[in-house]
Amino acid sequence: MMTNHRNMYKQNLYLLIDKMKIVKVVAFLCASVALAGCSGKGETYHCGDVERIEAFPHEYNLGETKPLDIDLTGAVNVFAADSLMVSEYLSGPYFWKVYSLQTRKWLGSMLRSGHGKGEVVQLPSDGCPMIQGGQLMCDLWMAESQTWGRVNLTKSIANRSTVWEDNVKIPLDGTFLDVFRLDDSSFFSVRLAGNGRRERGVIKGGRFVMLDQLGTLNTLGTDDEYNTLSSVVRLNPQRDHVAEAMIRLNELVIYSLRTNFRKTLSMGDDLQDVKTVSSKPRWFQRKSFGYLSAYKDFFGVLYYDCSMKDYQSDKAGKTDLLFFDWNGAPLARIRIPYQATSFFIYGNSLYVFTSVGEKERLYQYAMPRIK
Fold first, then answer.
1. Which residues does the chain have with pLDDT short of 50?
2. Pair 204, 263: CB distance under 8 Å
């Protein structure tokens, strides 16, 4: 019986090869094997369908250029808020300095360091800018005080001091790594749980309700001290979609807060086994993704694919900037000739910030087509 089944299988395979080119059969089998390896079984971190990223419709190579004449000494990051650029600092009298992207002039400093009223103890999470009532706002999360806040940038610049539009204390136990406001009464958040686990959920009415159907994202943990499951998280408020870029794993995840849409994007043939990754010494772990920025119709993320040793030693040398739409379709790959720290888009320009060694620089390029 087994011999008959094998003969029938061979006959069917020969018929298939007669109808198709061999190269197509090989490609099909390879893709099937890769997807089987990405099925989410075992100790992999995933949610929803798993897709392997093999190519991008648009690919560009940026050349070296001179940095802009802006003093960013000591800055650890920059981000754009409409026509403004905010540079962030870990220490000093203020955590933010604000510049005009049109004139490149300094407009003021915000988020005064301290324990007094309206002051901030440490650098908050990256700001989420928006226009509201004709005013430029910026949302941020202050983890040390478990407080979400909204700064009015327009009034802060005019008043030469930080103007808070709103502050909400999260009255829940636990360590909340990321908090994004959804509406007047609810927040999306990522909470650190036991065993290095991250729990994604919605805070509403004084309760934290975990999202369901997120594969292993809310359940898988690890005892390692290097935060193997850490990620950069961004929310698209127009779509209620969340994108996460894994710092040490070769994948991105996208999921909806309103529907059952979930997807995992793998940059390798297979998703990595979390225990295998976490068992390696820190210097031999990989640095996969970094800064992630969300836009209305797409998001961009920095991709290094180098050892943590090279990254921490500023020896990565170059960075890929990858763009995807909010359904996970790859749009463009831009190769940057520097070890980039962050980036943003303003008008028709792409700005790349680097913080390598003791020098902080900002580069400006013409924004390539990504759609």
1. 1-41
2. no
